[in-house]
Amino acid sequence: MASKQLKVLMFGWEFPPEISGGLGTACYGLTSGLIENNVDVLFVVPKLFGKEDTEKFKLIDAGTVEVNFQNDTFTENLKKVSYLQIHSHIVPYVSPEEFMQRQEFDVETLKVDSTFSTAKFSFDGKYGKNLITEVSKYAAVAMQVAKDNEIDIIHAHDWLTFPAAIMAKEVSGKPLVVHIHATEFDRSGDNVNQEVYDMEKRGCEVADKVICVSRLTRRILINRYGIDPSKVVVVHNAVVPKPVQYYPKENLIDKKIVTFLGRVTFQKGPDYFVEAARKVLDVLPDTHFVMAGNGDMFIKLVERAAELKISNRFHFTGFLKFEETNNLFGMTDVYVMPSVSEPFGITPLEAMRTGVPVIISKQSGVAEILNNAIKVDFWDVNSVADTIIGLLKHEELSKQLAADGTDEVHEMKWEYAALKVKEVYEDTI
Amino acid sequence: MKKLCFYFQVHQPFRLKEYGFFNIGKDDSYFDEKLNREIMRKVADKCYLPMNQLLLEQIEAHNGNFKVSFSISGVCIEQFELYAQDVLDSFKRLAATGCVEFIAETYGHSLSALVSPEEFKAQVAKQTAKVKEHFGQTPTTFRNTELIYNNQIGSLVHEMGYRTMITEGADHVMDWRSPNFMYAHCQHPDMNLLLKNYKLSDDIAFRFSERSWESWPLHAETFGKWVNDTAWNQEIINLFMDYETFGEHQWEESGIFEFMRELPNQIINHSQFEFVTPSEASKQLSPVSGIDIHNTISWADAERDLTAWLGNPIQDDAFESLYKLEELVKKVTDPKIKDDWIKLQTSDHFYYMCTKFWSDGDVHKYFSHYESPYDGFLNYMNVLVDFEERVRQNLGIKNADNDVHPGIIENFKRYLPEGVEI
Q1: Mean pLDDT, consecutive 10-residue segments, chain B of 422 residues?
Q2: Exposed, middle or buried by CB within 10 Å (0-12, 13-18, 19+), for B323?
Q3: Nearest-angstrom CA–CA distance, B119 and B140
């Protein structure tokens, strides 16, 4: 091994425990894995919420960085990001608290008062209406951080951090690796937001290497973004082998529980889950279904479940906190991920880790690597229902599948995934 | 003399507490005691206590010529017992005057008349027993929840022995007819119907403090004139409204109490009208004709139908899920389950799930403690699932373990990972 420790400046929009989806979880796992591989990671988030593990990780809260803009290159560069404007009613990631009230983004450009030489920017770190302004501010902070720290490489997760990463590369002259956890096509189907698409494309083009989370995503980058195949590599996600406290199921109703956990948006296929539930209930009427999560299809699906007359067997919990998620997995008999488009899909791994058998969509990145999972087409509601029924009716088989699944997942360590990432770094430098 | 009949609806639901998915199976106290107490105390201080006092003074001042009637839901009386003994006492004082009639309704202010005659009758028996216990009267007039009425409900109430019932004089059933007469059930000529004059009722209940209204501010003298100007041949004006109109919906500052303090004088001394209670009206008047009300009416919203409580998918599924349990609940003897069963039937729970935002949503929102109809619905369903489970456990009902069609299992096998077999 090389004696010199690699220093990575990493940009990510969220870091556990304050997260809205799989992105934060992946950032946490990857950073942990890199540390195990003797890589020094400096991780910049828009905002720290106070519960992050600052002993283990070197985290920078963008709002605390004193940005000095009294020099020419800085103001020049700042101009490049300050015109970043995105008109959109489609939000890339929706924070659960905000999706109901959310209006259109404020189209606001970043203004700097030139009578002061330094400034701090404030962030709310969510995905609210100031998102685009925050993306610009974050990029300004990134330049300062890149200047102040000795680094070897820059690594950025998803498009919100790309302006920041590009600026950091510009300032430091260091190579850039961008990491694609989801593309605009996954999030929005074919109704892509052109500005978001452009930002993703530009990030990939500027980058020296592009890491993506599945072969599925790699194909999208090559075919739909025109990225040079030779610089796009696949590193599948892993899962943190954390012991999970099981919720004592006997405290809750003695029923079989089938769970969906994820954003209630087009991408995740929650509507197929509702339709499948009706079919399962026709056969096994005492099964209970849980949809954990929030999103723009929430109300529509509450109404749909009511139309199907299954509201007394179908529970919408809204967004769950971390511990509640674990409690839910503890109660769950079958986990279903019917995603329409899923670059990777980390939640089935979390379910498997707690000993839950899973049914996953063939249209997910995680299907590329999992053996002990049932894989169906998301649109094939009959087969989704039949496999749920099969697992519920065959308890021994279910247990076997779950046990094998747990073993399989425990072999998927972030340490290994991070090693691959480290090799990408070494190739790049 | 012509008749003027005041009837006030007094009702407060047992509102549910915030009951999440993780409460299911562990928590059988469904109601928000703090919120219910707070609201009861607030309404008691703003409306029930001052208005009861006002009515008592007017009855005494007019030597028994001023009369009113009330229907108080059982769940409301129960909350008086829990949180507002003073209100209960003041209603007892009103009862003792002999000028106040108490009207029968369902204990839970429920919609049971629409689906279950048996449940309906049981709840009416429970409410009338409660009225007798506190006010020493056995009701002889009937008023269904929110004036909900159709021929069938009328027949059911007739079958139970009532001969006077009050309901809404909705335009779409009245057509050219005036509500200012007494009518009868179209199949039971001895079943008298008193119909709300919604125009004059709403002048007090809704428009009283509306500054943009041409008649604002409304004085008792003016209102007395409107009443007195009723066409020469018409016989009765029925003013039916929520009791909370006085001091709650129409604030004290609007002058509503002054208005009501003066109105008895205007009617008794300056008009050709006298006050009657519904059962007196029923005895003194003859019905002018039968009235055929096939489609259900109520006094709610602009539509005057059931759509405040039922009709959208979430209301319908919640309602059906509830009454699907009736057969099971009947077999249960556990008193707490029986008690919860009634309180879960209260119509307000379904009112909160109303999504008619475009026309009457404002009113619904005013009366709801939920952020949205969907919140109200999901909360209710969580409670109902827990309730169902308690009922099933009480009766020792096991989970269904049906046989599965072989075709389903054949399909399932196709998806098993390699090496896994059944």
Answers
A1: 97 97 94 98 97 98 97 98 98 98 98 97 98 98 97 98 96 92 97 97 94 94 95 94 95 95 96 97 97 94 90 97 98 97 98 76 74 94 97 94 93 92 82
A2: middle
A3: 19
B400 and A286: CB-CB below 8 Å?
Answer: yes
Helix orientation angle between B220-228 and B198-205, rounded to the nearest 10 degrees: 180
What is the token pair recorded at A307? 């139309």
Model's pTM, two decimal places?
0.88
B409 interaction partners in chain A (CB closer than 8 Å):
386, 390, 393
Strand-pair partners of B70: B8, B102
Q: Which residues contact B41 (CB under 8 A, 6 or more apart)?
A: B83, B84
CB contact under 8 A, A252 and B400: no
Q: Which residues of B touch A256 (CB under 8 A)?
A: 399
Residue A299: list chain B partners with CB under 8 A: 374
Test B399 with A254 for CB contact under 8 angstroms: yes
- Mention every residue, 6+ apart, whose C-beta is less than 8 A from residue B396: none
Q: Does A224 touch chain B (CB under 8 A)?
A: no
- A156, A146, A116: which is closest to A23 by C-alpha? A156
Q: In this structure, what token pair is assigned to residue A67?
A: 């940005």
- Burial degree of A115 (CB within 10 A; 0-12, 13-18, 19+): exposed
- CA A18 – CA A322 distance, rounded (Å): 9
Tokens 């139970």 belong to which residue? B160
Is B158 buried (19+), middle (13-18) or exposed (0-12) by CB count in 10 A? middle
CA separation for the pair B230, B232 (Å, rounded): 6
ipTM over 0.90: yes
One-letter amino acid identity for A84?
A: L
Query: B387 — alpha (psi -120 to 50), left (phi > 0) or beta?
Result: alpha
Name the residue type at position A168. A
Q: For A405, which residue in chain B has the nearest alpha carbon?
A: B417
Q: What is the DSSP string of B215-279?
A: TPSP-HHHHHHHHHTS-TT--EEEEEEEGGGBTTTB-GGGTHHHHHHHHHHHHHHHSSEEEE-HH
Strand stretches in A146-226, DSSP E: 153-157, 176-180, 209-212
Residue B371: active-site member: no
B280 three-class SS: helix
- Nearest by Cα to B107 from B76, B135, B153, B81: B76
